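User: C-alpha cells for this one?
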Amino acid sequence: MKALIHTDGLTKRFGDTVALDGVTLDIHAGECVGLLGPNGAGKTTLLTLVEGLRMPTSGTVRLFGDDPRDPAARTRLGSTPQATALPDALRVREVLDVVAAHYPRAASRDAIAAEFGLGPFLARQCGALSGGEQRRVALALAFVGDPDLVLLDEPTTGLDVDARRALWDAVRARNRSGTAVVVTSHHLEEIEQLAERVVVIDHGVVRTDDTLSAVVAGVSRRRVTLRGASADDVRALDPAATVTEDGGAVTAVVADSDALVRALVQHGTPFTDLAVRGATLEEAFLTITKGAA
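Assistant:
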C-alpha cells in the first residue's frame, strides 16, 4: 500500500544548522503516530516539509504520492500548527465556513461543532475567545475537510485537563474511522493515550521508530514507589537511581528493582506501600534522547 507520507533521506538545513539529517519515514493509512523529540529536534520542520510550506535541502518528501507543494496534494490533508492564529473579527462559524470552502468534501459545520464541542462558540468572534477556546477551534479546523491524514503539532497546548481529554476522545474517534494522525506533544501522556506507533527524532535524526509498547518495553528501568524510607535511604542503597520524594512517598527509577528491594530488607530499612511497575513513555523518551546525546 502506498504511504500517505513518504520521506527518503530528507535533509533540511538553515545556514549552518542541520534541522533534519537524512530522515527516511513512511506513514500509512489509519495509523496514529506520536512524533517525539526535544525542543529543536526537527519535529516541526518535518511537518512543514510534509505540508509543502518549505522545500527540502536534499532528499525526497511525498504526500499521497505527490509533491506536497502542489495544492492538489493537500486536499486530503488537515493540520493544526503550534501557533494559533485565528482572524479576530470573524465569528467561529464564519471561520469554519471559510476553511470548509477550500475542500471538495468538507464536513458540515454542525457536525464539526458537535464533534469538537464548539456549539457555544459559533456566534462569537474569534478575538473574544480565550486561548484554550481558540485552541479547540484550531484543532477542529484540521478536520473540517474530512481529511485522510491530519498533522497535529502540540494540539492541546493551553487546554485544561477536561478539555484535553474531550479532544483526545474526538481524535481517537476520527482515527478509528480511518483518519491517519501524526501528533507531536510535550505531554507524553497525550502520546500514550493516542498513539500506537512512536517516532523519536533528536538532532534531526530518527532515533527510534516502533510501536508504543515496544518502545516502552525496550527500557529496562523500573519505577519503585514506597513509604517509610527516606529518599536519602534509597540513594544510599542505589546511587545510580533517580529518586524523588513527594508527600512522604519516595519514587526511585532503577535498573534493578529486585536488587533495591533486597537491599532495603537486608539493611533493615523500614518501608510500606511498596509498588513496582515498568517504565513509562517519559522514561523511555529520556533514555533514548540522553543515549543519543
